[in-house]
Write a structure and sequence with these properties.
This is Oxidoreductase. Pfam families: FAD-depend_C (PF21688), FAD_binding_3 (PF01494). InterPro entries: FAD-bd, FAD-binding_protein, FAD-depend_C, FAD/NAD-bd_sf. It comes from Acetobacter aceti NBRC 14818. This protein is α+β, with helices and mostly antiparallel strands and 544 residues long. It folds into three domains: 78 residues, 2-Layer Sandwich (Alpha-Beta Plaits), CATH 3.30.70.2700; 196 residues, 3-Layer(bba) Sandwich (FAD/NAD(P)-binding domain), CATH 3.50.50.60; 196 residues, no CATH class. The chain is built from 13 helices and 23 strands. Helix 4 runs parallel beside helix 13. The longest helix has 19 residues. The two termini are 29 Å apart. The structure holds flavin-adenine dinucleotide. Flavin-adenine dinucleotide (FAD) binds next to helix 4, strand 17 and helix 13.
Length: 544
């Protein structure tokens, strides 16, 4: 097949426009275009009022070699590249026949653990998945109980339970991870098989939304179980069992049971603070990692749409507009928008009692009234808090507790109008923007919930953002806090073969270990560690 990129068409083009554009670019007649498909679709919105769809298309034509040679100088016309994922080659029947074979264990059923388990199950290696939280539907009830009734279940919430932290989310699926082996494509293919819309395979900024994620996670569980995997919910790993050479020999569970295994994938996410403490006590190598904290900001989505799309705002094919904003302060700190959710809601995302944490989610339709995004400031371990692996967790906890108090002590979030925040006065009421955070927002000052340097950096950044995106000049925009769980505050480093630096048999993985930031990169890391475990079981080394 031939791949043609940079085909620009108006938003309202007819379906026939695709083969016609292909024929024109390739210098053939439309009847020469055989099968064709969309490899990628994005848009170019640099000129308001003149937004174009930008396609990359694959097609067949008679005598492809001749056409390619005619266009050999055109970098936008090429042979369609191979994007298929090739699994590592391991003799599984021989492995299973070994008398001392022990099933690999995956701790955590978030995107990383789920994908690791799926790969191991597809290979036939029968993983055991240990998840502290509940199956996803039961978990949904607990998660909504915090939002609707201020009732937190510490083991079952936005962070913990089947599907992991990404389940109640916008389900954005983009990543900038280098992907020579097409792991991202494998993840997307599996998501589509599990029920995600096919468009995620070609949209430049795909997203799924919360409701579909729930049924996808269940579908993937059924496939893993059908291939010999075993799920154990309500099962927290409380100890890693090591022999005298620090080789993993098993895990101890919250009910005291021990499972013998020599291979543990630790995919516990960035909020498993008790598990981090346990690993530190066991002497597992870990180090402090920079992360960011700040607030969530909400604007009317219609304003963002008008800013980004001008007269074409409201176009069905463009959907709700997003944004990405970055500023470097005079002091040299990065301030940036994080996890922007068009047409979504701000959610209560704490996993610990008496703490308040914000994050954002949306449904597939992205049809809610407000746009929200984190506005967060980079932190520096060793400067802003001690350079100790667990010091970032203590720092997060401190500000999350402050936010709980400032919100009124009942899981409401402290909130402030942008105009008041910039003027340095507490908000006594909110304005035209109704915040979406449940169980509610208490108008106050955010200064007590964040370090002074973070507030100063956000105060410096907001006017700069307003000069780039005029919605940010809206004084009634609401900020709620605190946004602390942007990424893991620590890293559990591993060697090239995927194992922990000092604990053979332990495979730290995903966002909690500092190897991912988002659903896609976490899921891709899950494939990497699953392959590493398969190769280790076979006595071979991972090769990248
Ligand atoms: P997690 O998803 O955190 O999964 C870890 C799992 O391990 C959890 O299920 C937990 O219960 C379990 N666990 C923890 N400790 C133990 C233990 N000791 N024993 C057993 N089980 C344990 N990313 C995006 O790319 N796009 C988005 O739109 C997006 N929106 C988000 C919205 C919200 C509200 C949140 C909270 C996050 C969002 N993210 C988004 C981030 C994304 O969810 C994470 O990057 C991703 O889930 C990390 O995957 P993971 O598998 O590494 O960890």
């Amino acid at each position: 097949m031939i791949r043609v990129s940079e085909i620009r068409l108006p938003l309202d083009h007819a379906p026939d426009a695709l083969p016609e554009a292909l024929a024109q670019r390739l210098g053939v007649s439309v009847s020469d275009i055989g099968a064709f498909s969309v490899a990628r679709r994005g848009y170019d919105a640099r000129k308001r009022g003149r937004i174009f769809l930008v396609y990359t298309l694959d097609c067949t034509v008679p005598d492809e070699a001749a056409i390619l040679s005619q266009h050999s100088d055109d970098p936008q016309i090429k042979v369609t590249p191979e994007t298929r994922y090739e699994p590592v080659d391991v003799d599984v029947p021989a492995l299973l026949a070994q008398p001392d074979f022990q099933r690999p264990v995956v701790v955590g059923a978030g995107p990383c653990g789920l994908m690791a388990a799926l790969i191991l199950a597809q290979m036939g290696l029968k993983p055991i998945i240990l998840e502290r939280g509940k199956p996803v539907r039961e978990r949904t009830v607990d998660t909504f109980a915090l939002w609707r009734k201020s009732e937190l279940t510490p083991e079952s919430n936005v962070q913990f339970g089947e599907g992991g932290a990404g389940t109640f989310s916008d389900g954005k699926l983009y990543t900038r991870v280098n992907d020579a082996r097409h792991l991202g494509r494998k993840v997307l293919d599996e998501f589509v098989r599990a029920g995600a819309p096919e468009e995620i395979l070609y949209l430049s900024k795909p997203h799924i939304g919360t409701f579909r994620l729930v049924s996808m996670v269940e579908h993937m569980r059924r496939e893993i179980e059908a291939a010999g995997g075993t799920y154990r919910f309500y099962t927290r790993v409380e100890q890693l069992l090591l022999d005298e050479k620090r080789q993993v020999r098993g895990v101890r569970l919250s009910d005291g049971e021990e499972i013998q295994t020599r291979h543990v994938i630790m995919a516990v996410g960035h909020s498993a603070r008790d598990t981090f403490e346990m690993l530190a006590e066991e002497g597992v190598a870990m180090e402090a990692k920079p992360f960011s904290i700040g607030v969530r900001i909400e604007h009317p989505q219609s304003l963002i749409d008008a800013d980004q799309f001008g007269p074409q705002a409201g176009s069905e094919i463009l959907g709700a507009a997003d944004y990405k904003l970055v500023h470097r302060t005079e002091e040299g700190r990065g301030v940036y928008s994080f996890c922007m959710c068009p047409g979504g809601t701000v959610v209560a995302a704490t996993s610990e009692p008496e703490r308040v944490v914000t994050n954002g989610m949306s449904q597939y339709s992205r049809a809610e009234r407000n746009a929200n995004a984190g506005i967060v400031v980079e932190l520096r371990p060793g400067v802003d808090y001690p350079d100790d692996p667990l010091a970032g967790v203590a720092f997060q906890r401190h500000w999350e507790s402050q936010a709980f108090v400032a919100g009124g002590g009942d899981y409401k979030a402290p909130g402030q109008r942008v105009e008041d925040f910039l003027a340095g006065r507490p908000s006594t009421h909110l304005g035209t923007v109704t915040p979406s955070y449940r169980p509610g927002v208490t108008p106050t000052s955010l200064d007590s919930c964040l370090p002074d340097f973070v507030c100063a950096a956000i105060r410096e950044a907001l006017p700069v953002f307003a000069s780039k995106l005029s919605s940010f000049a809206l004084g009634d925009a609401v900020m709620t806090g605190v946004e602390t769980r942007t990424s893991s505050p620590l890293k559990i480093p591993r060697k090239d073969d995927g194992e922990s630096l000092n604990t053979p048999g332990l495979y730290p993985a995903g966002e909690g270990a500092g190897y991912a930031g988002g659903i896609m990169s976490a899921a891709m890391d899950g494939i990497r560690v699953a392959e590493a475990v398969a190769l280790a079981l076979a006595g071979r080394q991972a090769n990248g």
